[in-house]
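Task 17 of the worksheet. Students: predict the tertiary structure of the chain below and write it out as structure tokens. Keep your answer in the requested format; marks are given for formatting as well as content.
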Amino acid sequence: MKFAYRFSNLLGTVYRRGNLNFTQDGNSVISPVGNRVTVFDLKNNKSDTLPLATRYNVKCVGLSPDGCLAIIVDEGNGLGPEHGVWGGGRHGGWLFYPDWVVSVEKSEDVSVGWASRPHAKKGEEDVKVWNTLSGFCFITFTEHSSGVTGVTFTSTGYVIVTSSMDGTVRAFDLHRYRNFRTFTSPRPTQFSCVAVDGSGEIVSAGAQDSFEVFIWSMQTGRLLDVLSGHEGPISGLSFNPAKSVLASASWDKTVRLWDMFDSWRTKETLALTSDALAVTFRPDGAELAVATLNSQITFWDPENAVQTGSIEGRHDLRAGRKELDKITAKHSAKGKSFTTLCYSADGQNILVGGLSKFVCIYHVKEQILVRKFEISCNLSLDAMEEFLNRRKMTEFGNLALIDQDAGEEDGVVIPLPGVRKGDMSSRHFKPEIRVTSLRFSPTGRCWAATTTEGLLIYSLDARMTFDPFELDTSITPSRIRAALRQRDFTRAILMAFRLNEQALVQEALESVPQDEVEVVSSSLPELYVEKVLEFLATSFEVSRHLEFYLLWTRQLLMQHGQKLKSRAGMLLPAVQFLQKSIQRHLNDLSKLCDWNCYNMRYALAVSKQRGVKRPAEPPGSEEEAAASTDDEDSLRLLAGTEEEEGEMLS
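Model answer:
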């Protein structure tokens, strides 16, 4: 270890007697404190007291090389030292397992589902599911006992699979809100990532310490296979959406492709120039993207194992300088990289983020930066600015460094190496800004990010921008309304979409009579069919004309279905957005309709049981005559009352 630790900082109390022993892996320190022995976990900044006590204060402690035996010598009150042996293993004593030490660093992740519950966020040990329509967290799963490292949805959107440092992979049901599957490995290991295939039947997780990939069956929960071959921790997993191929990225500078139908044999091994940090397939499965430690994004053809392109993103990160950094932001940026990436729904762009406050969108084919998002302007976070505040600079250096070095007094906490969270109870707590995970929604209309600031959602709002399409000087709102008055609905709709003002588009579509929707929809050009579908998907969420828009959707798909299938990849975001909007209305109305149907069935069943069935009265019956007479008397009385009130007012 390169740093000196004082036990007053680790424990909180001063004990200046006794010795100390480092464990074999260097992650823990064993030392006497009074008449007890305490184990200090340096990685998690925790302390555990062993279940033993001596009569006098402990003088020294010895630890066997395998960590299974501790020898304790206490002060014998002047009668000489007394020896005590505390064993481990099956004898009921204490046994030290270095592989069981887990990290509590917060690594948040997000996944986007298909229905109205699209976001799942993981914290240290909890998994929270959010509804983006209402913005509320409606369920929290607390089954994990250690930090959660990965979250993913199945294709149905009603099952969440999570991986954790506690050595388990769990599947949660969003219908009943329960943990219905728990996957474990033959021996305890820490899982760093998780992935589920397109059918939702195969679950895979990567190990951080054993460098293996574990495969389970979702239906039976049994371990199917263990894939070995990597020489470093597994950093990412991704299934090919179109084929039965699994890609695994590792710190050993390789990405391996495993064939599911060939007994999980290695199909290809892609050699990289640096450690792989993240991997993902394009939605059509024809391309693979890998983020590496040198801030590069490389694109590969998975069929031929050939690199097709690369993006150098080091200059786009623009990492800031932390308060405790002794080097400039320019030099510290050499150690920054992208740690998460995700393709857009159409596969033309890729979204990347990492150890910076910026999220970048690149065009895959042109390999250029399309847009950069600054996720936060909160200066209370660390590494927000490129240069330090000059007012805090002294002749001895930065004031933050001076405050951290003031460790002569008891009770001052010195941060441990590798700890990024710090002491959250400190008055000067400044977490480092970073992006831990990014996901595009299946509709392509929004993307979500988990950052130091929290869970952020960026969405397209077409109503707030003016974005014309093939606009010329002859297209004006007055000419659009003139075409509607002339009942030239097709030309009016085309002009409205070229002007691209939502109010005019809505007016043009809703002016079409219901019996002419079929004719107008069949006369629309193929280029405008996609735009009409996108507008219908957006209007389903805010409009009351549900049946009218459903008629438009049905006619467009019936008239142009064959042509749309030839461009299924480009139209997939619009179709998924349309399906999501219709599904939301179906969920809302089906509950109400089912409730009414069940009530009517109940009323009919009760009436049949009691035998109360009123026969239909003839049209000229006495009861109807009496009822009509009563109604006439009531109307006369009401009319007389109104006349009296009018006379009083006059």
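Marker's comment: Residues 9 and 414 are 7 Å apart (CA to CA). The mean pLDDT is 77.
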